[in-house]
Write a structure and sequence with these properties.
Subcellular location: Cytoplasm
Catalytic activity: N-acetyl-L-glutamate 5-semialdehyde + phosphate + NADP(+) = N-acetyl-L-glutamyl 5-phosphate + NADPH + H(+)
CATH topology of the largest domain: Dihydrodipicolinate Reductase, domain 2
Helix content: 25-40%
Strand content: 15-25%
Radius of gyration: 20 Å
Keywords: Amino-acid biosynthesis, Arginine biosynthesis, Cytoplasm, NADP, Oxidoreductase
CATH class of the largest domain: Alpha Beta
InterPro entries: AGPR, AGPR_AS, AGPR_dimerisation_dom, AGPR_type-2, NAD(P)-bd_dom_sf, Semialdehyde_DH_NAD-bd
Function: Catalyzes the NADPH-dependent reduction of N-acetyl-5-glutamyl phosphate to yield N-acetyl-L-glutamate 5-semialdehyde.
Largest sheet: 7 strands, mixed
Structural class: alpha/beta
CATH superfamily of the largest domain: Dihydrodipicolinate Reductase, domain 2
Number of domains: 2
Distance between the termini: 13 Å
Length: about 300
C-alpha cells in the first residue's frame, strides 16, 4: 500500500518548520514541500495540494483560505494551522481530547482546523467543567495568558533574537481592544454563552505558555469547590493522552509556574489551586507544541489512522 503523501504548505514559517522537523525520519508517510522558487507560485502550489493525500496549511489566514479554495481533488484532506477556519461549521475542530466524540470526528474528517495556542489551554480547562454543570455558562470569565515571543511567528523571533534584540520589550500585554481573534474560538468550543475577557501577553522567552482563569466559588453552583473542579478535570482527561491534570497535593506545593516547563513536548498540563473561596485554573504547554505544530501532528496521526 503506498505511503500517504503529506504536503506542508508554508514550511518556512515557525509552525511549518516545527511540523517538518517532527515528521523527519517518519517511515509511514512521505513529506512533500515546494522548492523556494515555487513557494509563491499559485499554479505550483495548487498542483502540489491537489496531488497529496493530506495538506497541512501553515499560512496566513487569507492565504490559507485561498489554498483551501484551490482544492479540486475530492480525495485531498486538509489540516489548517491558521485561524481562518476555526469557527467554520464545515471544518472539524482539531482538539481530540476535547470530548469523547472529537477524536473520531477528526479521524474521518476531510477538513480539520488546528486549534489556536491560547484557546487550547482555555478550552482544555473550561469545556469539561461547563459540560459537567460545575461552571455556569454565563460565568464572567477572564483569561490571562503569557506566551513566549515565538507566538508572534518569525517577526517575534527576529524582534528578540535579531540585531535589535536589545531594544525589545521584555514583557508586553496586548489585545487591549478586547477583541482578540481567539475569543470567538474560545467561546464556541468551551461552551460559554457570554464572550470571555481575554488578556494575552508576550514575555522575553522563546516558547511556552502559562494561562490562568480565576473563579470565585460564591458564583458557582452550591457545594462546588476547587477539589470538585479538579476531580472533574481529572476524570475527563483520564487516559486521554497528551493532557495531564496535576494532583492537587503537588499543586499546593508550588510557589510559581514556569511557562517553559513543557517546552519540547506536545503535552498540556492543567492545574487547580484554591484558597478561601477563590480558585485558580491554570494550563501550561509549549505554544509550538500542543499549541501549534505538535497538535497538527497529533491530528495528522489521527487522520492517517482513521483512513
Amino acid at each position: 500500500m503506498p505511503l500517504p503523501i503529506v504536503f506542508i504548505d508554508g514550511d518556512q514559517g515557525t509552525t511549518g518548520l516545527q511540523i517538518h522537523q517532527r515528521l523527519q525520519g517518519r517511515t509511514d508517510l512521505h513529506v512533500v514541500t515546494l522548492p523556494a522558487e515555487h513557494r509563491k507560485n499559485p499554479v505550483s502550489r495548487a498542483a502540489a495540494i491537489n496531488a497529496c493525500d493530506i495538506a497541512v496549511l501553515c499560512l496566513p489566514d487569507d492565504a490559507a483560505r485561498d489554498a483551501a479554495a484551490s482544492i479540486t481533488n475530492p480525495d485531498v484532506r486538509v489540516i489548517d494551522a491558521s485561524s481562518a477556519h476555526r469557527t467554520h461549521p464545515d471544518w472539524v475542530y482539531g482538539f481530540a481530547q476535547m470530548s469523547d466524540a472529537q477524536k473520531q470526528s477528526i479521524a474521518s474528517a476531510r477538513r480539520v482546523s488546528n486549534p489556536g495556542c491560547y484557546p487550547t489551554g482555555a478550552i482544555g480547562l473550561l469545556r469539561p467543567l461547563l459540560e459537567a454543570g460545575l461552571l455556569p455558562r454565563d460565568y464572567p470569565i477572564s483569561i490571562n495568558a503569557v506566551s513566549g515571543y515565538s507566538g508572534k511567528g518569525r517577526a517575534g523571533v527576529d524582534e528578540f533574537e535579531g540585531p535589535d534584540a536589545a531594544q525589545s520589550i521584555p514583557f508586553q500585554v496586548y489585545g487591549l481592544s478586547l477583541a482578540h481573534k481567539h475569543v470567538p474560538e474560545i467561546q464556541q468550543y468551551s461552551g460559554l454563552s457570554e464572550r470571555p475577557v481575554f488578556v494575552p501577553a508576550y514575555g522575553a522567552f522563546r516558547q511556552g505558555i502559562v494561562l490562568t482563569i480565576a473563579l470565585q466559588t460564591r458564583l458557582l453552583p452550591h457545594g462546588v469547590t476547587g477539589t470538585t473542579l479538579h476531580t472533574a478535570l481529572a476524570k475527563h482527561y483520564q487516559g486521554s493522552g497528551y493532557v495531564d491534570v496535576m494532583p492537587m497535593e503537588q499543586s499546593r506545593a508550588l510557589t510559581g509556574i514556569d511557562p517553559r516547563q513543557l517546552n519540547g513536548t506536545d503535552n498540556l498540563r492543567l492545574m487547580v489551586f484554591e484558597n478561601d473561596g477563590h480558585v485558580l485554573l491554570a494550563a501550561v504547554f509549549d505554544n509550538l507544541g500542543k499549541g501549534a505544530a505538535g497538535a497538527a501532528v497529533q491530528n495528522l496521526d489521527v487522520m492517517i489512522a482513521g483512513g
